[in-house]
Amino acid sequence: MQQPFDTHDPFLRDVLSVQKISAVPTILEVICRSTGMGFAAVARVTEEKWIACAVRDEIQFGLTPGDELKLETTICNEIRQHQQPVVIDHVAAAPDWNTHHTPAMYGFESYISMPIFLKTGDFFGTLCAIDPRPNRLNTPETVGMFRLYAELIAFHLQALDNLEQAEMHLREEKETAELREQFIAILGHDLRNPIGAISNSAQLLKRFGTDEKTSRITGIILNATHRMDGLVENIMDFASGRLGGGITLQKELHQRPAEVLNQVVSELALVWPQRTIETEFNIRVPVIFDARRIAQVFSNLLGNALSHGKADCAVHATASADSGSFILRVYNEGQPIPEITRQSLFTPFFRGDVKKGSQGLGLGLFISSEIAKAHGGRLELHSDAIGTTFSLIIPQASGTPR
């Protein structure tokens, strides 16, 4: 009757899954007590095997979880084929079963078996019971109980499968998170350092090179390194924000905030020597903000205006501050931003229609918006047929930085 169970057999997973269902022992006990049957089991039944997954044996039938019966000797094999329950009160008095080989081989007189179907509709096996004595089984109450328990077991098997899938995805997410952390480290060190070296060298060449060709080449290098540095900065902020707690700030009270903004203008003027940047910074009070982050936002907004505005028109940047708020605006003339584009402009990786040579990752405005939110402020957009204005608005609270 019994065959040794190979622990490397793929069916072991199904046996262990049923073993994990805490309700199964109670189900088998209730079946035996309510029907008078001495043996009850959950069986995995396939085209190849019949394997006991869980057993309650009060008649020393001799099966334990993992044991296998020869498939052709079981009625469960027939149930797998026609997928209908089989209920026998008394084998000897049942014309369809009194000459069947299975009752004679295993010595039972009463038998009930209910198919177990997974949520996918696939046949898993059976919930079955046998006893050497006749028993009254073919009643709506008993058949209904077996059907309910079979559905309950199928539900738990599906839940376990979902849990296993979730745990697998969690492991994959942890591995991905580790790769992201390594990726951030590479960006922060192995890429930014050489970008800085290239930028510094280009600035030296531009300072000492007097001919037009050298100036043009160094301008191209500075433009490229500026864009690369901005891409790295935005990717690091995006990845760090998703892995950690979002944009981090180091707020300070700045007595001369215009210096922070003028530094950005000077940097971009080197990158865009052929363009005109007009500024009006009317800041009459000290401002509380993270200078590096505000410079990052201003660089993103000003860089976008230079990239997408009319080439023969100046880009205008204004800033003002009072006890109520700090407001930074960047304006450029050009085509209006379509309404459908505006709806997604501050979402990550959205780029809309971009000019050739100006392609980015679509993170600049998203990061800028997140920086504004981290300051308790907001980033606004106004665009019409005349031009486009981005406004950074940060409320100013009295007192010291927090």
From TrEMBL:
Output the GO biological process annotations, alphabetical, semicolon-separated: osmosensory signaling via phosphorelay pathway
As its record notes, the protein acts as a catalyst of:
ATP + protein L-histidine = ADP + protein N-phospho-L-histidine
Specify whether Transferase is a keyword of the entry: yes
Keywords associated with the record = Coiled coil, Kinase, Phosphoprotein, Transferase
Q: Does the keyword S-adenosyl-L-methionine apply?
A: no
What Gene Ontology terms describe what this protein does at the molecular function level?
phosphorelay response regulator activity; phosphorelay sensor kinase activity; protein kinase activator activity
Q: What is its EC number?
A: 2.7.13.3
Q: Which Pfam families match?
A: GAF, HATPase_c, HisKA
State the superkingdom: Bacteria
Which species does the entry assign this protein to?
Pedobacter yulinensis
Leading EC class: transferase
InterPro entries assigned: BphY/WalK/GraS-like (IPR050351), GAF (IPR003018), GAF-like_dom_sf (IPR029016), HATPase_C_sf (IPR036890), HATPase_dom (IPR003594), His_kinase_dom (IPR005467), HisK_dim/P_dom (IPR003661), HisK_dim/P_sf (IPR036097)
What is the recorded name of this protein?
histidine kinase
List the coiled-coil residues.
153-180
What sequence ranges are listed for the domain Histidine kinase? 186-398
